[in-house]
Design brief:
The complex is a heterodimer of chains A (418) and B (246). Chain A is α+β, with helices and mostly antiparallel strands. Chain A has helices spanning 9-18, 22-62, 72-75, 86-94, 127-131, 159-165, 201-206, 212-218, 238-249, 259-262, 264-302, 304-312, 317-352, 361-366, 381-407, 411-414; strands at 65-69, 98-112, 117-125, 154-158, 172-178, 184-196, 207-211, 227-232, 254-258, 355-356, 374-375. The chains are: A alpha+beta (418), B alpha/beta (246).
């Protein structure tokens, strides 16, 4: 007699048993749905917030990628400078993912007026090219302006620095620093044309922008600059673009760094925050799995006699196990689909109606983060797949316990149960 | 030809550390086509004997051959297959799979045996007609009366034409009239299809119907008599015309 493949009887039995106790099944489906939807929603909100934090940090000044002479980023010294040769510029121009790049000169120095002095970080920038990389021009306070072509002795400074020095737009400052050649570099009567507040406490406190040409001249850079900042169209492509640039430029004297190298504290925050969230997700996954376990356990318990009869009339234990597993499979698949739909719908709502964090701005600044205003959620297919897979695998693993119990029943004992 | 051959069967149970002997050196031979009742009071060991014959329980000692097979050498899978192919079971009550209709419950055995859909359905329909449930095929167990459920169980037990049907107090939960109808049906099938039936019972009516009555007391066969069935000579109602009563 053929005892091989039988046409879906386990599936038919499982499906009908799923709906035998509708209330319990609906409650289990709700547990899976709510659990999955919550994880998808929280992932979307969280990843959306990371994107905004990273984008704000990147667009404030650093750009997605920077190119320096090796050692510059460690020592932040004007002694490490590079000549932007054709190979570098051609590589930047050739990459379609690059939205813009800008050359800069950096130097540490002292800024002073008649009443006060402050340690600052001076950044020489090309006003037009800079706008394609950073967003500092958008952070200029009312009454001021950003640098423009033709400016020579004009500067833009951060708001905290302006407050510490007690200056405003129209006032003048003097700078003293060290030149590339080791000479003393000094400038007097630099006119403040704009004050910015980008939300990054470091930039607001220490940064001064001046025209690139003037910086090159003041710091005796000649053909040298200290860095090239690069902005790319799609931030998530940074690692690939960085690798392409490394391969295209192929110069061991240069360091080509992504924002994660430039601002490791942001990456650390993201990693730490993700880890914390995973603990929360883990609790949700386990709650869902216990919900499924409870349902299947109860279902098996109630049907002990039925399984006993089935075993007695010749049903192999493997079929009983399959039937219980398929029951759980049906519940999980329906619950996961509902959860994915609900999670996606909720996430979509927060994409079109971002959460407004404006009132928490002060607290966020304390943590050193750039201005967060409206933070839209970010929904990726991978969040749905990841959540669904984990819920599915955890629930199915938990199902094995009652399924094995059902399959291992001794018919003679099981039949006695009512 | 002996369909069951039992030698020196002993079955002990361990109840809270105390060994309880349920069967004591039982020796029994049942020939093919017999309509046998194993009678005795509660706790006499009749269900245990039936369970061991059906391969649902194992003996403490002794040998049990059923349809030519020594049950001691069969694996759990082998026992499961033997039950599927050679034995039909009828229990006291709640025999059926609740989520399947009467037809599907009967088909289930054939499906496990790998019978094709057309043949499966045809045989299940025919047997349900024979037990008088032709109009109830699409009802689920909870929509059937106790008697109807037992008739579906009988249909399921014989649909694959097994050599042996074991029925554990099949009339225990039925009223007398329904029980008599069920016994008529099984007796008729026994005669027509030459299927061996063994009942465990303490119901006088079942004992009257039996052609062989084995009495069991405290795990010992105290009497074993062949006799005439009360039904013999009676007009056999054609099963197809049996009325279905809910």
């Amino acid at each position: 007699m053929n005892h091989g493949k039988k046409p879906l009887i386990e599936a038919v039995l499982a499906w009908r048993n799923v709906w035998k106790n509708k209330r319990r099944t609906v409650l289990t489906l709700l547990t899976i749905m709510v659990g999955s939807a919550m994880v998808i929603l929280f992932m979307s909100l969280q990843e959306g917030a990371y994107d905004v934090i990273i984008e704000n940090a990147v667009s404030a000044n650093s750009g997605h990628i920077q190119i320096h002479e090796k050692g510059f980023w460690e020592f932040r010294s004007i002694d490490y400078a590079l000549i932007p040769d054709k190979r570098v510029i051609n590589a930047l121009k050739a990459d379609p993912s690059i939205a813009g790049y800008t050359e800069r000169v950096h130097a540490a120095g002292l800024v002073a007026n008649e009443e006060a002095s402050e340690i600052v970080f001076i950044q020489g920038v090309d006003p037009e090219m800079e706008k394609r990389v950073s967003s500092l021009h958008k952070a200029i306070r009312k009454g001021g302006r950003f640098l423009k072509p033709g400016d020579a002795t004009q500067i833009v400074i951060g708001q905290t620095l302006a407050e510490n020095l007690g200056v405003k737009v129209g006032d003048t400052l003097s700078i003293i620093s060290q030149g590339f050649d080791g000479s003393i570099a000094g400038l007097r009567d630099l006119s403040i044309v704009g004050i910015f507040k980008c939300g990054n406490p470091e930039y607001d406190r220490y940064l001064i922008l001046m025209p690139l040409g003037r910086a090159v001249e003041t710091f005796a850079m000649g053909k040298y600059i200290t860095s090239i900042a690069v902005r790319i169209h799609e931030g998530s492509l940074m690692p690939e673009v960085r690798e392409r640039l490394k391969n295209a430029i192929h110069d061991d004297r240069l360091e080509i760094m992504g924002w994660d190298d430039l601002m490791p504290e942001i990456m650390q925050y993201v990693v730490f925050d993700r880890a914390s969230a995973y603990i929360f997700y883990f609790v949700l996954y386990i709650t869902v799995a216990f919900g499924v376990l409870n349902t299947i356990q109860m279902s098996v318990f109630e049907r002990t006699r039925e399984f006993g009869i089935m075993l007695a009339i010749g049903t192999r234990p493997g079929r009983i196990l399959s039937m219980v597993v398929i029951e759980s499979l049906f519940i999980c698949i329906i619950g996961i689909i509902l959860g994915a739909l609900a999670g996606s719908a909720l996430s979509y709502y927060f994409i079109v109606s971002p959460i407004d964090y404006t009132e928490y701005q002060k607290e966020l600044e304390v943590w050193g983060f750039i201005t967060l205003t409206k933070v839209p959620a970010k929904l990726a297919f991978s969040y749905i797949i990841e959540t669904s897979l984990v819920v599915f695998i955890t629930s199915m693993l938990f199902t094995i316990i009652p399924a094995r119990r059902a399959a291992r029943l001794k018919p003679v004992e099981a039949i006695r149960k009512l | 030809m002996a369909i069951i051959n039992i030698q020196d069967l002993v079955k002990d149970y361990d109840t809270n550390g105390i060994a309880v002997r349920a069967l004591r050196n039982v020796v029994l031979t049942v020939e093919k086509g017999e309509f046998t009742a194993i009678a005795g009071p509660s706790g006499s060991g009749k269900t245990t004997l039936l369970n061991i014959i059906g391969g649902l329980d194992s003996p403490t000692s002794g040998t049990v051959h059923v349809v030519g097979k020594d049950l001691a050498v069969l694996s759990p899978k082998g026992l499961s297959d033997m039950r599927l192919e050679k034995i039909g079971f009828i229990f006291q009550a709640y025999n059926l799979i609740p989520v399947l209709t009467a037809l599907e419950n009967v088909e289930y055995i054939l499906l496990l045996q790998g019978t094709g859909k057309e043949e499966r359905r045809g045989r299940a329909m025919r047997i349900l007609e024979e037990v008088g449930l032709g109009k109830e095929i699409n009802r689920r167990p909870k929509e059937l009366s106790g008697g109807q459920q037992q008739r579906v169980a009988v249909a399921r037990a014989i649909v694959s034409e097994p050599e042996l049907v074991l029925a554990d107090e099949p009339t225990a939960n039925l009223d007398q009239k329904t029980g008599a109808g069920l016994l008529d049906l099984m007796h008729e099938l026994n005669h027509r299809k030459n299927i061996t039936f063994i009942f465990s019972t303490h119901d006088r009516m079942v004992m009257d119907y039996a052609e062989r009555l084995i009495s069991l007391t405290d795990g010992i066969i105290v009497s074993d008599e062949k006799k005439k069935s009360r039904r013999e000579g009676a007009v056999i109602t054609k099963p197809k015309k049996m009325k279905s009563k809910r």
